[in-house]
Amino acid sequence: MRKRVPLNAIRAFEATARMSSVVKAADELCVTPTAVSHQIRLLEDFLQIQLFIRKNSRIELTTDARANVARITQALDLINEAVLCLEKSDEDVRRRLSVSASASVVSLWLMPRLSEFMKTAPEVDLNVRTFLSRKEAESQESDIRICNWQSQLDCQIEPLIEEEIIPVCAPEIAAQYGGNARDILANAPLVHVDRIQDGLDGTYPDWARYLTEYGVSRSDLSHGARFNQAGTAMEAADAGVGVILGRSLLIEKAIARGTLVPVAESYPIRSPYFMLSPWKTDGRETMQRFKDWIVGKVRTNELVHAI
User: Fold this and answer.
1) Could you tell me the pLDDT band of residue 4, with boundaries at 50, 70 and 90?
2) pLDDT reading at 302 higher than 60
3) pLDDT greater than 70 at residue 145
4) Counting beta carbons within 10 angstroms of the beta carbon of residue 281, is it exposed (0 to 12), middle (13 to 18) or buried (19 or more)?
5) Is residue 261 within 8 Å of residue 255, measured between CB atoms?
6) For the whole model, what pTM was predicted?
7) Full 3-state SS string of the chain
8) What domains are there in the chain, each with its CATH number?
């Protein structure tokens, strides 16, 4: 525990020692010379030592005081710098923004667009975080979360987008089956994504649900490459490993490039995404700017449908 030192008295002593004058110290501290002399006497009483030798109108530091005054000056400079940093912190907070989403959404949907936001808001210090599960997402600190579940957090929850599930594969695989959708679904190798079972991906169909919906029968539904993340599964499909139930949020760039092609109809049930943010955003214009920007990107997205 720190000893309670009289900071006002220390400031009076340091200013007087630095200027070798009570009058000049009083002017710097915006007090009277009498007040400075009083504070110095308080400090001498507190320390039980003499700090100055008074010779008529002149004062001189004692040996002990001279040995320590430089360190006291450095300490007061550090305090001053720290306080100035605190004065700037409100503005710094307004400029900072943390955004979190699943690793696949960040890498395949958000990242290709972020340069546009940063060009419109170059002063913003953006911190992008990823998560792999609902538990991880809701336990980490973040200003804005993009997630595909109805959270129980005490925050503002806004519908953002709906995502379609579309079977896609590399063009060369589609060509092997003449581009026939039923032949591709019935015979092409399947790529699987093992969904996390804590609510993060609970609304997405697997191959059994999708093929049943469209009356396609396969005896090898459990076979094929398996991945625990949608992003790496998409990379595998892009490399020609097989057909994947692609999430429209993640596959749009690959379809635009032509490295993946749609195979058949999308699953009839869409999966919603939500944007989570604090109830109160007073003084956080940066947060609202990002929210407005991302909603605008959703509205211009051809494969992802705005709610």
Assistant:
1) confident
2) no
3) yes
4) middle
5) yes
6) 0.61
7) CCCCCCHHHHHHHHHHHHHCCHHHHHHHHCCCHHHHHHHHHHHHHHHCCCCEEEECCEEEECHHHHHHHHHHHHHHHHHHHHHHHHHHHHHHHHHEEEEEEEHHHHHHHHHHHHHHHHHHCCCCEEEEEEECCHHHHHHCCCCEEEECCCCCCCCEEEEEEEECEEEEECHHHHHHCCCCHHHHHHHCCEEEECCCCCCCCCCCCCHHHHHHHCCCCCCCCCCCEEECCHHHHHHHHHCCCCEEEEEHHHHHHHHHHCCCEECCCCCCCCEEEEEEECCCCCCCHHHHHHHHHHHHHHHCCCCCEEC
8) 7-61 (1.10.10.10), 94-162+272-306 (3.40.190.10), 165-269 (3.40.190.10)
Which pLDDT score is estimated for 305?
43
Task: Tell me the pLDDT of the chain averaged across its residues.
Answer: 85
Top pLDDT among 68 and 259 is at 259
Neighbouring CB atoms inside 10 A of 101's CB total 24
What distances in angstroms separate CA 103 from CA 128, 141, 143, 151, 232, one per listed residue? 10, 16, 17, 18, 10
Kindly list the distances between the CA atom of residue 69 and the CA atoms of 2, 31, 65, 83, 263, in Å, as whole numbers in the listed order. 20, 21, 6, 21, 79
Question: Band of the pLDDT at 307, cuts 50, 70, 90?
Answer: very low
Residue with tokens 């220390």: 10
**Res 68: pLDDT:** 86
Sequence-ordered list of residues with C-beta below 8 angstroms from that of 250, at least 6 positions apart, any chain: 104, 105, 108, 109, 230, 231, 234
pLDDT one-digit tens code per residue, 153-189: 888 899 998 889 999 999 999 999 999 999 999 999 9
